[in-house]
Amino acid sequence: MRPTTYKHQAVLNLPVASVRIDDAFWAPKLEVLQRVTAHDVLNKFEHDGALRNFDFAAEGSGGYHSGEPWFDGLVYETIRGISDLLAARGDEALDLRLDGIIAKIARAQDAVGDGYLNTYTLLDRPDQRWADNGGNLRWQHDVYNAGCLIEAGVHHYRATGKTSLLAVAVKFANHMSGLMGPPPKRNIVPAHSLPEEAVLKLHQLALDEPGLAAKLKLPFEAADYLALASFWIHNRGNHEGRVSHDGEYAQDHKPVLEQDEAVGHAVRATLLYAGLTALYLSTGEAAYLGTAKTLWDDIAYRKSHITGGVGAIHHDEKFGGAYELPDNGYLETCAAAGMGFFSWNLFLATGESRYIDKLETILYNIVLAGRSLDGHKYFYENPLVSDGGHNRWEWHPCPCCPPMILKLLPEIASYIYAYDGKGAYVNLFVASEGEFAIGDVPVRLKQQTGYPWTGSVGIAVMPEREARFAVRIRIPEWCGRYALTVNGQAAAHELANGYAVLDRTWGADDVVRFDLELSVDLIEAHPKVTTHANRAAIRRGPMLYCLESTDNERYQGETVRYAREALDKDTRLNRWLPDVPVFETEHDPAFLGGAVLVRTADENGRPLTAIPYPYWNNRSRGTMDVWLGHGHPADEAGWENKLYRKIARD
Q1: Is the pTM of the predicted complex or chain greater than 0.90?
Q2: Residue 204: which of 283, 311, 94 has the closest Cα?
Q3: Secondary-structure breakdown of the chain: helix, strand, coil percentages, each rounded to the nearest 5
Q4: What distance in Å separates the CA atoms of residue 164 and residue 216, rounded to the nearest whole number?
Q5: Are 111 and 59 in contact (CB under 8 A)?
Q6: What is each CA distance from 351 to 12, 162, 420, in whole angstroms?
Q7: By C-alpha distance, which of 608, 614, 612, 617 is closest to 597?
Q8: How many CB atoms lie within 10 A of CB 164?
């Protein structure tokens, strides 16, 4: 399996099939993803009628549409995620199950005849394709669903070598590229972003394998797909010949390259920005990268919750203003996944560790919280406080988050390592083995680690023959102290872009030891985040911690929250934690498959137990809180490119 590798990547990524994960933390979660979640999502879509929609569309008359208009897209996203599981781990039963679903999809498209396929429009609004005749593209999701199909087709082909779904995707892409574009074509752009990056993946596949045209027996023109994605990016904010997609809500208020603030629906926004970055990776046009970085900075340093969640406002599932970060924020799982994809693309463009820092925070907190540990219950929203009424659901009228989890989690294998002509990157600390070539030298890297519960990482560097190159190891932004050795000796190294760079001649038996200090830290928010004034959060390594009433029974019936309106920077009233709390850690192998718990006490000496945030609501229903009362006033200085930082404890 080859990854989608764009022409202008500064850093090259590995396909998921080139990395083998044998990690005490992640391997069981990926096993549950494949064994439970993948089947659970398909079963529930089958029960909801989402798969039957394709049968009705194939029959051409007499049917009705089940579910929301974007259910086609959710089915395709599920296929994409399962395809990556097939590439990494193989699964005959899932492979056969996908074959059956793809056959339904192909029959439906063949019945339509011109490459178009959107079961909602075909069954419920047959005269309103692309929002014609009074239709509504924001509601119908014609272009969004097409993008999900194209992305799934590319991933399925790269994972299995089968062209069954790719052929459907290419027909639809050809249909759109013939219809949409500058005059005399039509000004149709996605009301819900995602298709931009999807079509760029198809463009890259056409560059990589032009011979597929003969195999598909279809036009397969890379230039057409690049032109379509470019048109979509450039014509946001241009409403000539079409209605606006509700302005800021769908980032359609002005041209993308004039946008400098993340606004509107957070899922749409992050997926648009991921596509914008992919357009830079495809073309090398500096303006695309500059705009993407500006928008990422706005989110990361002004609009991200400490868990990595984005999209604070319930109304329209949107970003709030700068520093508007309420504890009961919306924080849709899909939006965090979109921010993860956006961050990864920016890493590929720049090689900067800050984008991996953000991705790691999202993976270890929001994405893990978004699915129960047993694999079949889900969070749509991920607030940082609960009065006991917020619980995972078995399913949802808008079940968009499970497919996004299925898309993101298998990609972890591709995120661990990266490389360029000068050396390798170790991005995530996951027990695994990856293979790639630096120049003409094949290299294997093998990690052993107990991360995130321990900070000890061993990396065996195994070139096929002795060679000089750099091994770059990410220094996480949360890490205060670390030690680095090679073959047991202290290793001189430079720091560049957030990485410790070991540039030396490597032999087949060299071992790097990287030990990170995993202290328990109190974290404060930027003083402009008024909802967090006089509060602190507990963090250990990449994980946030929270209090659940399950572990703090004596406080059930009491208000977990203090009256925040009574607190300001200058008062020490109603503190929950003392000025300098004493923390103790305990690794409990019986706690939901193993976890490190944090013990401390409140200001009155009553014991408290904090658990990793992603594990909350897995044992029972109850209250939960992340931001705890604390009398430390945030200093106004030193916040450049920071939204959260450690509170000094000496």
Answers
A1: yes
A2: 283
A3: 40, 20, 40
A4: 9
A5: yes
A6: 10, 33, 10
A7: 612
A8: 16
**Is the distance from CB of 542 to CB of 476 less than 8 angstroms?**
yes
Distance, in Å, from the CA atom of 266 to the CA atom of 282, rounded to the nearest integer, reads: 24
Q: Tell me how far CA of residue 647 lies from CA of 537, 580, 628, in angstroms.
A: 10, 10, 13
DSSP H or E stretch at residue 300 = helix 286-302
**Helices 52-59 & 71-89, crossing angle to 10 degrees?**
120
Q: Are 472 and 423 in contact (CB under 8 A)?
A: yes
Tokens found for residue 48: 């909801």
d(CA 303, CA 319): 7
CB atoms within 10 A of CB 9: 21
The pLDDT tens digits for 209-254 are 999 999 999 999 999 999 999 999 999 999 999 999 999 999 999 9
Confidence of residue 553 (pLDDT cuts 50, 70, 90): low
Burial 207-225 (b: 16+ CB within 10 A, else e): beeeebeeebebebbbebb
What letter would DSSP give residue 634? P
* Phi, psi for 202 (deg, rounded to 5): -65, -40
- Tell me how long the chain is: 650
647 close to 523: Cβ distance less than 8 angstroms = yes
**Dihedral pair phi/psi, residue 260, rounded to 5°:** -130, 5
Q: Which residue is listed with tokens 């999502």? A: 41
- Phi first, then psi, for residue 19 (nearest 5°) are -125, 125
Mean pLDDT of the chain: 94
Q: Give residue 522's pLDDT band: very low, low, confident or very high (50, 70, 90).
A: very high
- 3-state SS string for 253-280: CCCHHHCCCCCCEHHHHHHHHHHHHHHH
Residue 272 CA to residue 236 CA, distance in Å, equals: 10
Question: What is the C-alpha to C-alpha distance for residues 88 and 110, in angstroms, rounded to an integer?
Answer: 31
Task: Quickly list DSSP for 39-64.
Answer: HHHHHHHHHHTTTHHHHHHHH-SS--
Residue 649 confidence class, pLDDT cut points 50, 70, 90: low
The rounded distance, in Å, linking the Cα atoms of 529 and 539 is 18
At what angle are helices 71-89 and 38-48 packed, to 10 degrees?
Answer: 150
Q: pLDDT per residue over 257-303, tens digit each?
A: 999 999 999 999 999 999 999 999 999 999 999 999 999 999 999 99
Distance in angstroms (rounded) separating the CA atoms of residues 579 and 575: 9
Encoded amino acid at 500, one letter? A
